[in-house]
Amino acid sequence: MPQAQAVQQGRQKDSRKAILDAAERAFADFGFGGASIRAIARDADVNQAMVHYYYQNKDQLFSAVVARRSGEINTRRERALDRLFASEVPDLETLIEVLVRPTIEIGHDTERGGDAYARLVVSSNNSADALSQQAIIEHYDPIARRSIDAIMRLLPELDKPAAVRGYLFAISVALSVMAKTGRAARLSEGLCDDSDTEETVSSVVAFASAGIRALADNKTGRKRVIG
Amino acid sequence: MPQAQAVQQGRQKDSRKAILDAAERAFADFGFGGASIRAIARDADVNQAMVHYYYQNKDQLFSAVVARRSGEINTRRERALDRLFASEVPDLETLIEVLVRPTIEIGHDTERGGDAYARLVVSSNNSADALSQQAIIEHYDPIARRSIDAIMRLLPELDKPAAVRGYLFAISVALSVMAKTGRAARLSEGLCDDSDTEETVSSVVAFASAGIRALADNKTGRKRVIG
DNA sequence: CCTCGATTTAATCAAACGTTTAATTAATAG
DNA sequence: CTATTAATTAAACGTTTGATTAAATCGAGG
Predict the structure, then answer these.
(1) In principle, which of A60, A188, B15, B132 could form an S-S bond with B164, CB 3.0–4.6 Å?
(2) Shortest CB distance from B179 goes to which of A126, A145, A191?
(3) Phi and psi dihedrals of A190, rounded to 5?
(4) Residues B179-195: what's their mean pLDDT?
(5) How far apart are alpha carbons A116 and A69 in whole angstroms?
(6) Are the Cβ atoms of A188 and B161 closer than 8 angstroms?
(7) pLDDT digits (tens, 9 = 90+) for B37-67
(8) Residue A52 CB closer than 7 angstroms to strand D?
C-alpha cells in the first residue's frame, strides 16, 4: 500500500508527482479513453505498476489530476473574492476579472503544465460522461455558487436564472481562451496572439461584463441598442 | 469496396446511417479514444466488419460524423448570411442570431441526435489533437472567416483581432449551451432550463452582441460603465 | 548489521482493441 | 435462369489495454 503522506526525503525521485504530470498531459492530449497507463508510466519514467501503486485505478488517477489544479484555482478565487468584498462593493468588471484571471493564467502557464490541464478541463466541462460530471460537481460547483451569489449582489436587477447564465457564459469564454488552440492566430492571420495573458484577460473581462449587463436588459426591456 | 452512392432501395436496412448515428453517440459519450468500434457496431445493430467496409478506419469514421452535421450547420448559416445582407445592413443582434441559432438548434434537436453531436463538437473545438484540429480547420474555419468579415462590416470601429476574438467568444458561448449538461439547472435549483431553445438563443444573442460591442470600447477608451 | 516498511521491478493475466480475411447471402442486370 | 456485383457475416489476426502478482531493492532506526 502507498503511504498517504510520503516522507519523500533524500535522493529518491518523486514518482507521485511525475505520474500526475504525465497523466495530465496524456488525458489532455488523448482524452480519458485515449490515454494509456503504459504511456503515462513511460512518460513519467516510472514502472507501469507504480501508477496503480499510488493511484489504484485509471478513474482515481483522473480525479487526482483534476483535484490538484482545481484546488489551486479555487483557493486563488476564494481568496480574491474575500479580499474583494472585504472593503466595499466592487464594480462588475473587477468581480469578473477575479473570477476569470486564475483560470486564464493557469492555462497560460505552460512551464508548469497548465496548458495541458486547460485542455483537459475544457473538455470535462462540456462532457456528459459520469467521471467528468463528477469532477465538475465536486471541484467546481461550490465556487460557482459563490460566484453567482456575488454577481447577484452586485447586479440586483438580475434574477437567478440570468445570473446563472451570465456566470456560465463568462466561464465558457474564459475556458475557451484558457486552452490555446492557435485558432485565433490562424483566423486573424497572426494578428491575434492568444498567449498574451494580459490582453486576453482584458478582452474576456470587457466581453463578459458587458454581456452580463445585457442579460439584465434582455429580461426587462428586450432588444435594446446601446452604441 | 463499398459503393459511394449506394442505391439503397428495397428492404435492405441503411447500415451506413445506422453506423454514423451510433458513432456520433459513442464519440460524444466516450471521446475518440474511449469509443470502440465494436460497441458502435453493436449499437447500430450491424456486424463489426461493416464499419470498416463503409468507413475504412476509425479516423475516417470520425471525420464522416463531423462532416455530416457541419454540412448542415454551414449550409443554414451561409443561406442566412446571404439573405441577411441581400436587402440592407442588418443590426448586430440579427447577425449574431444568424450565426448562433443553427448551432444551438441542432444541439437541442434531441430526436435527431443533435445533442450527441453537440457534445462532440464542443470537445473537438477546444481539443489539440491532430484529428480534431483537422476537422475544425476543414469544416468550420471557412464559415468563421466569412462571419468575422460580416462582423467587421457591421462594426467598422472593430479591428481584426477584436473581431476575431468577438466571433470566437460568441461561438464559445453558443457551444456551451449547445451541449446540455444540466449544469445550469443544477446551479439554479431548477429555475434555469437549458432545453428552452428560444430563451437560450435570446440570452446568447444579448450576451454576445453586448460583449462584441464592448470589445470595441475596450480597444479605444478602456473601462467604461454603461448602465 | 539487520530489520522493517516503503518503494520499485519484471512478468503475467484475461479482456478488449482496430483491422483483415475469406466465405456467404442478397439484389440487380443481361 | 445465370452472371455479377454489393452487402453482410463469422472468425481470426496481432497488439494493446488496465490490472495483479510476487519478488527484488531501497532507506532509515535500532
Answers:
(1) A188
(2) A126
(3) 85, -5
(4) 88
(5) 11
(6) yes
(7) 999 999 999 999 999 999 999 999 999 999 9
(8) yes
B212: pLDDT strictly greater than 70: yes
| Cβ-nearest to B184 among A168, A179, A181 | A168
Task: Report the alpha-carbon distance of residue B46 to residue B50 in Å, rounded.
Answer: 7
Asked if B2 and B60 touch (Cβ cutoff 8 Å), the reply is: no
Return the exposure string of A48-68: e unless at least 16 CB atoms fall within 10 Å of the residue's CB, then b.
eebbeebbeebeebbbbbbee
Nucleotides of D under 7 A from a protein CB: 5-12, 16-22, 26-28
- Alpha-carbon span B73 to B39, nearest angstrom: 28
Please indicate whether, in this complex, the C-beta atoms of A202 and B186 are within 8 angstroms of each other. no
Nearest to B68 by CA among B13, B7, B139, B127: B139
Find which of B117, B131, B165 to mutate to test the A interface (most A CBs within 10 Å of its CB).
Answer: B165
Q: Quote the CA–CA distance of B151 and B135 in Å, as a whole number.
A: 24
How does pLDDT run across B86-117, given as a tens digit for each residue?
Answer: 877 789 999 999 999 998 999 999 999 888 88
For residue B72, which amino acid is it? Answer: E
Cβ-based contacts of A187 with chain B (< 8 Å): 141, 144-145, 148, 164, 167-168
Beta strands in chain A (DSSP E): none
- pLDDT of residue A9 exceeding 50: no
Nearest chain B residue (CA) to A168: B184
Residue B12 CB lies within 7 Å of the nucleic strand D: yes
Nearest chain A Cα distance for residue B185, angstroms: 9
Phi-psi label, residue A190: left if phi above 0, alpha if psi -120 to 50, beta otherwise: left
pLDDT tens digits along A204-226: 999 999 999 999 987 654 444 43
Contact A172 B172 (CB under 8 A): yes
CB-count burial class (<10 Å; 0-12, 13-18, 19+) for B67: middle
Q: Is the Cβ atom of B169 within 7 Å of strand D at any atom?
A: no
